[in-house]
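Handoff note, outgoing to incoming analyst
You'll be picking up this chain. Sequence as last confirmed:
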Amino acid sequence: MFGKKTISTFGRRGMIGGFAKTNGAPPPAPSLSIDEKCKLVLTEMERCANWKHRHIESSILHNVPQVFVTADLQRELELELDRLLMEQLIQEEQRQIHSPSAEMIVRESIEEEPEDLNYCMACNSSPCEWRPSCDVDALTKRKKLLYRELTAAQKQQDCKMIRSAIARSVLNGGDNQFRPVDLIKELSIEIKEIDSSIKLCFIDEELHQTYATVSESVTVQSIHGFPTTVKRDAAIQALDFQHSRLIAKELAAETIEGILDWMLEGWFFGERDCVKDTITISDDDSPRFRERGTLLSKANRIQLSSNADALRAANTKKDNDDDLKRFETTMRYGIFYLTFMYFRALHLVRREKETWRGAYDVVTMAKKAPLSAERMKMIEEERNIDFRKARMEEATEKARRGEEKKRLRLERERLEKARISQRDNKRKQTAQRLALCLQRVYRGHIGRKVAKVHYLQQDRARSANVLMNACATAIARVWRGYCGRQDAKYLRKEMAEFLFAIRVEDAKDEEEEYLAMQRWF
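Most recent structure output, in case you need it:
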């Protein structure tokens, strides 16, 4: 019953229109060669291409019948075919490499050119020219000393001052007394720099090895601290990025240190106290000083050059001042001429205007020009406009006063209506309030009467109920007493009959016993 798997004919998982298809390709055997697997994959791809339903069952990928979307299965089969072809090519190359003819060729090439065994593809040289950027062993020893000193400083944080001979500033000639916080900070910074240098050395080595290898995948450990197998291109990209980042970090730190040292030597932070012994000048140094020249000769050359530069700068400044003065004078004259021409043109325009208007006529000798008919009309129109404007303003003022009176009258009427409406509303509210008060009093009176009647009815009902309960209790008590007496009478009767029967039996037994005893005697 459960040994054989059954598939329904219809339905979502049936053979007709469902996921369960009985015409799937048989699962490939594990012992098949790559060529046979490729043929099976190609056959399955053709079946997927000709399949019209959305879902299809196949066992090619995982050796187990499964239901896939047709497009997804076709894409996965293409990837599987590419993988099989790549695996076939790799096996063919390995077969050719391990063949006797290939070994013979390699042996002959080794005998002919033994130095090519050490050829490095990254350096493009033989042997490899790569060298570590730092002494890892020395840095590791230095790091251990710093860790030991850092642990001791952390234990002595309660002290005000600590002596240390391990710090880098002490080795460079500085003071050997530190505050605990400053010493811990300096040691921590140096430990971080040593870790960065060691990591840079390891990354540089792995990057060189990655460039030199020809395999598709490499193992990288210097980036994350644990072995990671990635593709060669991705490893080169990641190692190159980390390599560039660490180099930029060290370069920036060295540049800043150099700038600070230069500023310290140049007394930018104040005069530096030197604790080192100075070497005095002896007579043996005179020939060397004479070869280099005296200070006076050097100063003369420098002074002459400086004087020439100063004279050249003074002459240039004087020429510039002269040019500026000439330019300023020219600008002033130009502005003056422009102003003069403006006022002269304005005067000529006004004079021409008065001439064309007829002023200073030879016949009339009037200062003002006679007005023309058109001008008289224009003046009359302006006068009429002013008159009409005055009349309009007067009419507007009258209308405004009338509108103001009307507005005041309407406002008084509105206020009167509002007052009357307010009085009526107040009267209505008072009447309504009084009516509500009367209703409340009347409803209270009626309610109290009804409540009193209801209370009397409930009291009568309670009294009747108590009386009925008392009667029922008395009747039940009398009845139970009567029944008890009857039961007791019946029980006494039965008990007497029982005792009488027992006594009769005892008497019979005694009589029989007595008769038996008489017979013996």
